[in-house]
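Box 4.2: Ligand-aware structure prediction
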Amino acid sequence: MTVPAARDRLIVALDLPDLNSAEAMVERLGEAVNFYKIGLELTYGGGLELAKRLARDGKKVFLDLKLHDIPNTVARATAQVADLGATFLTIHAYPQTMQAARGAIGASSLRLLAVTVMTSYDDNDLNEAGYRFGVRELVARRALQAREAGVHGLVLSAEEAPAIRKVVGPDTLLVTPGIRQSGGDIADQKRVMTPARAIAGGADYLVVGRPVTQASDPRAAALAFTAEIGGASK
Ligand code: C5P
């Protein structure tokens, strides 16, 4: 697998309340950022139009929609996202969902990322929800099922990346949020990792939100992340 340029490995999460502030942030970041994540909040606030515009302008777009429905609905929604020009789309790591989405990307360049177990879940939460596996076991099981379904990558915490890399091998894309530069404000994240350690642990792409979007100089912050990614990739 060819390693993308450092700038393409930084995905900035546009977790902003409305379209105007998201567009202003994209404008401010300019050439410093090439890849944006649009999540549920902004999607429901007009984010799909922004996604289309970003893709038309040559930016890469990660639509974090976490699809999960009956196979027909997942397939049709995935085809719509592919038409829109997105690069990454998240789906929940249920075998039916993954197979349906994989069958629907056609010749597009859309890549699917499976969410194995939400990081807000612990073993008790899984037990409560009726699962017979704990978090570690279920993450590993679903990572393998994702690979079998032909899903291109996984979203997971940087802490899980080294162990999961061993399970899935070199070709699965690992995308990790919860990234902070050393000494950075961790806000509500519980387990954070620096860009350099995440890359060394096997992450392919890093998702960074507030450390860039809430910085006094977002562009400088993004460039600092890219520099650290570049340093760790050598
Ligand atoms: O601002 P911050 O860098 O913490 O944002 C991280 C982004 O990654 C947010 O969009 C958040 O929803 C997302 N994310 C996460 N942890 C996960 C999955 C996604 O922080 N396990």
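In the box above, the bound molecule is cytidine-5'-monophosphate. The pocket of cytidine-5'-monophosphate is lined by residues 13, 15, 39, 119, 155, 157, 177-178, 187, 189, 207-211 (CB under 6 Å).
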